[in-house]
Amino acid sequence: MKILVTGATGYIGKRLIPLLANDEHHIVCAVRDKLRADKAYNEDDLIDVVEADFLKPETLSNIPKDIDVAYYLIHSMSNSSRDFESLEERCAINFRSYIEKTEVKQVIYLSGITNEDELSKHLRSRKNVEETLKSDTYALTVFKAGIIVGSGSSSFEIIRDLVEKLPVMIAPKWLNTKTQPLAVRDVLSFLHKSAGRTEVFNKAYDVFGPEILTYKEMLLQFADVRDLKRYIITVPVMTPKLSSYWLYFVTSTSYKLATSLVDSMGVQIIGKPSNINQLLDINPMSYKEAVKLAFEKIEQNSIISSWKDSMVSSGRLRNQLHKYVNVPKYGCFKDYKERKVIDTQKTIDKIWSIGGHNGWYYGNVLWKLRGHIDKLFGGIGLRRGRTSPTDLDAGDALDFWRVIFADKTKQKLLLYAEMRLPGEAWLEFKIEDGLLKQTATFRPRGLWGRLYWYSILPFHGFIFNGMINKLVDVNA
After folding, report:
1. Distances, alpha carbon 315 to alpha carbons 254, 418, 458, in Å
2. Rounded to whole angstroms, how far apart are CA atoms 95 and 378?
3. What is the pLDDT of residues 94-129, one digit of tens each?
4. β-bridge mates for residue 149, sequence order
5. Is residue 97 within 8 Å of residue 54, measured between CB atoms?
6. Measured between alpha carbons, how far is 463 from 455 in angstroms, rounded to an integer?
7. What does pTM read for this prediction?
8. How many CB atoms lie within 10 A of CB 314?
9. Are 371 and 365 contacting, i.e. CB atoms less than 8 angstroms apart?
10. Phi/psi at 334 (5° precision)
């Protein structure tokens, strides 16, 4: 079959594509920016990558017409737009309008469980998208999931932060809200096994794990898996805003995402039973099993996708990375340094391992201080870290930077700053003619931008000199 996957660079899309590829389907990956597509896709004859923005109908003609099955995996947990729900509806309308003109027989949509009378705005939007996607020209299959548990998922990483950082938690009352967590592996099984199955055409199913748990029970079971003793006290006095700040300062989430999560976590998510498990021969695993499996992936450094690499976690960028590949030359301040490279491969490996647990090789206390300052001013800070300790691709989050370009064969890495700044900043590492060229570029915004640059100039001299020396092993 020829299968279209929208949201191909997202948390679910990146994990679903290899499963479909193993079945030797011809896959069309629809992405807003080709720079963010996995490089391996270009080497696979059965995978095509096309640029399509579902908010811009004129770009959808890049999608071929001879599609058999289409996955609609376009979601956002961002609160950055006041008309969030209308934007999601527009995406769905544009998708349906174009797909109805193709040969598609089935559209598969991953939604959220929406059985309560009062829903969060994100669950309301999911429900509205489901209604919008219905059509007389193709069959719609909807899977509605609750909390998804897997390495790199936002819920997993937030629970991990809370459990591993706080021996005692004074937490909001929504920790008593009930839900039915589902392993990401099981979510993928439902999506994968339903392609082309006529039995699920024009059907909607709630998919969920075998247990009904409160968020508090999930935290405690997570702690049990990690052999940690944790105490949780819930209090009724935390407003949604205070709860959002609590998540924001303790975990690696952004404030916007924390607000969205708090809004959703106040809603009970209990699924309605159906025959879908028997129909597709899927036996969902328990929450503890899902957590253990996630840590196996983490320990093997085999996390395929992470919410942190999604633009939802972005402090500044909005999808189009190519706009930032060409670093500006005029009206900018630059800090340029170069050193002779002793061992090219060793230097490349160091550059590609920078940040996260490895730190920035020099002046890490100052890097951490800058991260704390960023958090205080509503930025993302350093706590996003990085998904892989050794690999970087365009679009990946790297502490408070975003990878814009990463190519080992061209020996170049370009980062764009997502911390709070009175301007824009880039950091480039490039090896040419046996030299490592390290360039920090800052384009100031107004007087405050210029004052900012001059105020941190002494620290730049200290940090950037030390960093480039470490990268080429000068007095390392």
Report:
1. 8, 5, 26
2. 34
3. 999 999 999 999 999 999 898 887 777 788 888 999
4. 183
5. no
6. 14
7. 0.74
8. 22
9. no
10. -130, 145
